[in-house]
Amino acid sequence: xxMLKDMLDDAAQDARVYDVTDxxxxxxxxxRAMARLVPVAxxxxxxxxxxxxxxxxxxxxxxxxxxxxxxxxxxxxVPEKSPPALPEDRGxxxxxxxxxxxxxxxxxxxxxxxxxxxxxxxQGISPxxxxxxxLRSSQGPWVLRDLTGTGRQEFEGDTTFSASWSPDSxxxxxxxxxxxxxxxxxxxxxxxxxxxxxDPARAGRVCAVRNSGQLVLCSSEEVPFSGLRLAxxxxxxxxxxxxxxxxxxxxxxxxxxxRGIPRLDIDDHTVFIPxxxxxxxxxxxxxAPAGHDRNVVLAGFDLDTGRLTxxxxxxxxxxxxxxxxxxxxxxxxxxxxxLLGFHPAGVLLVHLxxxxxxxxxxxxxxxxxxxxxxxxxxxxxxTSRPISGICYRG
Amino acid sequence: MDDEESFRExxxxxxxxxSRIAFLxxxxxxxxxxxxxxxxxxxxxxxxxxxxxxxxxxxxxxxxYHEHVSSWRSRRHREVLAADPPERQAGRNESVxxxxxxxxxxxxxxxxxxxxxxxxxxxxxxxxxxxxADALGCTVGSVKSQTHHALGRLxxxxxELAELxxxxxxxx
Lengths: 394, 172
Description:
The structure holds two protein chains of two kinds. Chain A is mainly beta. Chain A has a domain at about 25-55. Chain A is about 10% helix and about 35% strand. In chain A, the strands form seven sheets. Chain A has a five-stranded mixed sheet, with no helix packed on it. In chain A, strands 17, 18, 19, 20 and 21 form a five-stranded antiparallel sheet that branches. A four-stranded antiparallel sheet of chain A has the order 4-3-2-28, with no helix packed on it. Chain A is globular. Chain B is mainly α. Chain B has nine helices and no strands. Chain B has helices spanning about 5-25, 30-45, 45-50, 55-75, 95-110, 115-125, 130-135, 140-155, 160-170. In chain B, helix 6 (about 115-125) packs across helix 7 (about 130-135), helix 7 packs across helix 8 and helix 8 (about 140-155) runs antiparallel to helix 9. Classes of the chains: A mainly beta, B mainly alpha. Chain B: Belongs to the sigma-70 factor family. ECF subfamily.
């Protein structure tokens, strides 16, 4: 506790209670009522011949074109205004990805249809697109749904529930809670569920499961990254420890915060870890200019050969000059990329941007691909308006 | 519980603290009230998404500070700070603490909003550099730099507060 804090506490006592909740709620009601009238007005304009063509990709994303295509992913993703509910009594075919648009959780199937999912969030889609795992409400349960039929399983678990699929989509591993939860291994070919007796003191987080059922364990996000461990999916016994040094990372490199956990590629043996150099710009003296980027790379470690085989640098942020600044402080949503998943053509990233019109709001989201053959970063999917919570297969 | 009810319940439990932060950021009641209202409108607009995100407090904090900085940007050509605000001369018979409090408020008003924000986040809300960076949407390096410059500016505009500032600069 500093004297400055004490003095700020004192100064804050002069504040009144500005209870403006009613005003805020009234403003929102009014805006929603106006929003309901907008489609009617637009329809009238169309009838009057004043509006001929709409530009679904206007605004912030205007003019941008995808630079490549990735099989299965749409080049342009236009969230439907009122997609039908995902039917519970029949299958809809395999899914490609899920996302949140407005207040709706939306599922996009491989044949391009969109469905509204009755869920708070989508936790995962199996690599073959057949299985969907969702959190029904904040109190649970987690529901595993077969999208080709009506089969389902439920898991109790808190919001730290995590799940990973084997690349061949035959296994699913779930941790119902990272602190005190149970780890289940589900055989998706039979629906059989077994408990993995991991040592709770050392379990950390299950970040992947291999086709053989072997588990890849990593540190929880709350503690410093300490490498990977491989555990038997039946006995839970750790069969191999891979320290940070053994991963082949530089001594100053560690897992980058907020960039996702290590993920297993569809080749079943490369684990990609988002890492950054802790001796980089974030640890420079206080006099360092604002806007420095962290050098985040996706490091691919081959579990079979025990070697670091791939490094893909992530362009982390638009140039500082384009980011809102005030008194030297940057603000607005971060412009960055996070690992989305793996595609036969390369590594998929979600590129989150800030809106050019309103720095507080998120701008358009794009899906990008780091091509396996060239390492080039290419835009594969554009979105027509801000969406969030994108979940891809795997 | 519907969305509006849960929003009201959430705000009700936090309105006192939000008000105090807004007052420290703006230095006057009308601006603080405006800041709280605009923030709540932004939060209410996305309330379901905010809950779904799992950390509504962090969202509200970000909204409040971003609104503070952005609203200042739109107003900055209209605002003229008094060179020597009248309150400062009215405290001859007040206690030393009361005078210091007024001096601190005046000094905060002379900081750029981003600098004021880091001071409030670091020393009033007691957040770490990483959490402050998260709230402002900037890097930890930027927070360090801003804190350094803000304390330096406070030392210049309010030499009476040198003792407080030196104490704040001692690493925890």
